[in-house]
Amino acid sequence: MRIKFLHAADLHLDSPFAALPPEQAARRRREQRELLGQIVELCNGEQCNLLLLAGDLFDGATVYPDTLEVLQHQLARCRALVFISPGNHDPYGPDSPYIRSGWPKNVHFFTEPSMQGFQLPHLDLELWGAAFTGPSAPSLLDGFRVSGERPAIVLLHGDAQNAASPYNAITTTQLEQCGADYVALGHIHAPSGLLHAGKTAYAWPGCAMGRGFDETGPRGVYVGTLTEEGCDLQFHPLDSRRYLILTVEAGADPRQSIVDALPPETENDIYRIVLTGPSPRLDVISLEESLAPRFFGLTIVDETYAPRDLWEARGQDTLRGLFLQALYERRAEDRELYEMAAQLGVAALDGREVPEL
């Protein structure tokens, strides 16, 4: 047995990208459509037998006609069998894009909120899955076990991190007891790596394209191989631009501090830059405008505070004053050491993050 598959999930096609200006949001939606071609090219290039799409292919029931046309065209180019398990954002139902015409013959949907099976004798494989038919779903894997007649893959959209989740909660016990060789999951937006529950291998690839600052880092899909020896997964990043968060000590010249902290190439990415530490009063809008041409998108967050004399509170009848006075009286012994201690102590007393010195 040697079955090769591409496992993708949570493409969220036609996302609003509301945090971006309209022109850039439209461009990001076009890039989502272009991602479909990348996935099919990779699937064909790797000579995969199966393309597994584990839910939330669409961000909602309202889909641009161009998006559906591109998706159907790309899947028709795919030389693998395609299986789709609808998720909580794109449940199978009367308003679903999945019931519209034009889907190629190699595409198969799970349509019920209970486990359904496809027998694939030419691959010596059975493939099981289920669908969300509304915005939530019970634990679809509860009590289920594959037939055991052939090797088996299960395809599901569900929450494997929260046993009380309304989004098809999946437990490690259920994964172990289902008897599948591999469970291809969606819903969690960060890639998991290859995991095991007993003899069952499972994973979720995360979203294939980041859409916000809660989806930072590389984004892509898994290409997997299933053999008698087990399952192997390789992560393939496909994102053309990324969301990145950068924390910068503002200093006396915040703009130059940012420039000095940036990598050489930033024009394709979307940055949130958090300015910290003591600094003169910032004009965040002007700072963003002056730096914006270096990025696809930029947000600057001001977490600085007004600079002040480090020792100004010494001698006051307060915890801060007594602490600083004690250090000030000894700083002649080692000026650098005691000033560092004072900075750390004042930061802690202010409830600020202790600076790296």
TrEMBL record:
In terms of superkingdom, the source organism counts as Bacteria
> Which Pfam families does the entry link to?
Metallophos
Listed GO molecular functions?
hydrolase activity
**Gene3D superfamilies annotated for this entry?**
3.60.21.10
Q: Which residues form the Calcineurin-like phosphoesterase domain?
A: 3-191
InterPro entries recorded for this chain? Answer: Calcineurin-like_PHP (IPR004843), DNA_Repair-Maintenance_Comp (IPR050535), Metallo-depent_PP-like (IPR029052)
Name used for this protein in its record: Metallophosphoesterase
Which organism is this protein's natural source? Candidatus Avoscillospira avistercoris
